[in-house]
Specification:
The structure is a single chain. This protein folds into two domains: 13-152, translation initiation factor eif-2b, domain 1 (Four Helix Bundle (Hemerythrin (Met), subunit A), Up-down Bundle), CATH 1.20.120; 156-360, Rossmann fold. It contains eleven helices and 14 strands. It has helices at residues 44-53, 59-80, 90-101, 108-124, 130-162, 186-195, 212-223, 236-241, 267-277, 308-311, 353-360; strands at residues 13-16, 23-27, 38-41, 166-171, 199-205, 228-231, 247-250, 254-256, 261-264, 281-284, 290-291, 330-333, 340-343, 346-349. A seven-stranded mixed β-sheet has the order 6-5-4-7-10-13-14, with helices on both faces. A four-stranded mixed β-sheet has the order 11-8-9-12, covered by helices on one side. It has a three-stranded antiparallel β-sheet with strand order 1-2-3, covered by helices on one side. A hairpin with a 4-residue loop joins β8 and β9. α1 (44-53) packs antiparallel against α2, α2 packs antiparallel against α5 and α4 (108-124) packs antiparallel against α5. The longest helix has 33 residues, at 130-162. It is globular. The termini are far apart. The structure holds 5-S-methyl-1-O-phosphono-5-thio-D-ribulose (MRU).
Length: 361
């Protein structure tokens, strides 16, 4: 199977310029791997749309983009009243935050990053002018971005140690550099294991309906020189039955207090299959993906997407135009199907409310 290589290094999210002339540059992931086109974002509504379109996607990446987007939203207000105190930003901050946080409801990293930006504002309000506050918030957004790269690296090292010395590793959706600020989460673990000398080969599930596995993961693995075979999602069971999969590793969009994991639709089926075949099932995610306010996965809001993503993928007619479609973007894998959750702080083996709290509480 020939998949066009995505040239390295491709970054999904970048800040360009300074404070007053700055913009957010997003690699349009809807067009990969056939076209490499960047969208330059200078205000909050185009960013909201880019997040909804999945031009920027992956839980950590949308958090980083959201943090930068908030700065873009505040700078015009600050510039319109040079010398004014930062209190004047409050209304714009809340408005921008609401527009962004509602763009994708399941990945908690977006909410986490925006709340962190709000906390930064609240810490400094009253002490800074509006423009100084924007500069401070830009620093915070850059810090969130940089920190994510560091978190990814630590997750990659912790996960690499768990992966088998050799054999097949199945992954789902896209959890690499395009989805994060660094090397990635689940994909980072595979890349790091390979770098450390493990002779693993990857199987990338194509990830219906939007094909993040085929379009992004297969290409990212290949550009890291990791042997990768692309399969349709429905081939996972057969591969496991044939003994060709020694581990499954995926990312997460939200992890609740009891260790339940919301991730790309299809993750739950893989976990059930892995359990049946006695294969370890790993989830890799940073602390910013944990939502300890929710007791269990049944409380997670699951994003429902437009039926045309299934009826007419990329404009091609796959089904009758009026056929009813059910298109949840994510499912929830119960903690009891998960062998371990790999974080930057360490590994939560057999996740339960107690083991999650011990590491993440
Ligand atoms: O709809 P997407 O492409 O944003 O879904 C992405 C996933 O489900 C990833 O597995 C998850 O966000 C983790 S990315 C490190």
């Amino acid at each position: 199977m020939t998949v066009p290589a995505v040239p390295e290094p491709l970054r999904g999210v970048q800040w360009k310029g300074g404070l007053e002339d700055g913009s957010l540059v997003l690699l349009d992931q809807t067009l990969l791997p056939s076209q490499i086109i960047y969208r330059e974002i200078t205000s909050v509504e185009p960013l909201r749309q880019a997040i909804i379109d999945l031009a920027v996607r992956g839980a950590p990446a949308i958090g980083i983009a959201g943090a930068y987007g908030l700065v873009l939203h505040l700078v015009p207000t600050a510039r319109s009243q040079v010398g004014a105190g930062s209190e004047i930003l409050e209304e714009a901050l809340e408005h921008g935050l609401q527009r962004l946080v509602t763009s994708r409801p399941t990945a908690v990293n977006l909410k986490w990053a925006l709340e962190r930006m709000r906390e930064c504002y609240l810490r400094h309000v009253g002490h800074l002018t509006a423009l100084e506050m924007c500069a401070r918030l830009l620093m915070e957004a850059k810090r969130i971005h940089r920190e994510d790269a560091e978190l990814c690296q630590r997750i990659a090292e912790n996960g690499a140690a768990l992966l088998p010395k050799s054999g097949g590793v199945f992954t789902h959706c896209n959890t690499g550099a395009l989805a994060t600020g660094g090397v990635g989460t689940a994909l980072g673990c595979i890349i790091e294991a390979f770098r450390a000398g493990k002779t693993i080969s990857a199987f990338a599930g194509e990830t219906r309906p939007l094909l993040q596995g085929a379009r992004l993961t297969a290409a990212e693995l290949r550009s890291n020189n990791i042997p990768v075979t692309l399969v349709t999602d429905s081939m996972a069971a057969l591969l496991m039955q044939q003994g060709r999969i020694q581990a499954v590793i995926v990312g997460a969009d939200r992890i609740t207090a009891n260790g339940d994991v919301a991730n790309k639709i299809g993750t739950y089926s893989l976990a059930v299959l892995a359990k049946h075949h006695g294969i370890p099932f790993y989830v890799a995610a940073p602390y910013s993906t944990f939502d300890l306010r929710l007791a269990s996965g049944s409380e997670i809001e699951i994003e429902q997407r437009h039926g045309d993503e299934i009826r007419r993928p990329q404009g091609a007619v796959f089904a009758p135009a009026d056929i009813p479609v059910y298109n949840p973007a994510f499912d929830v894998t119960p903690a009891n199907l998960i062998t371990a959750i790999i974080t930057e702080r360490g590994v939560i083996t057999k996740p339960t409310t107690a083991t999650v709290a011990r590491l993440m509480g």
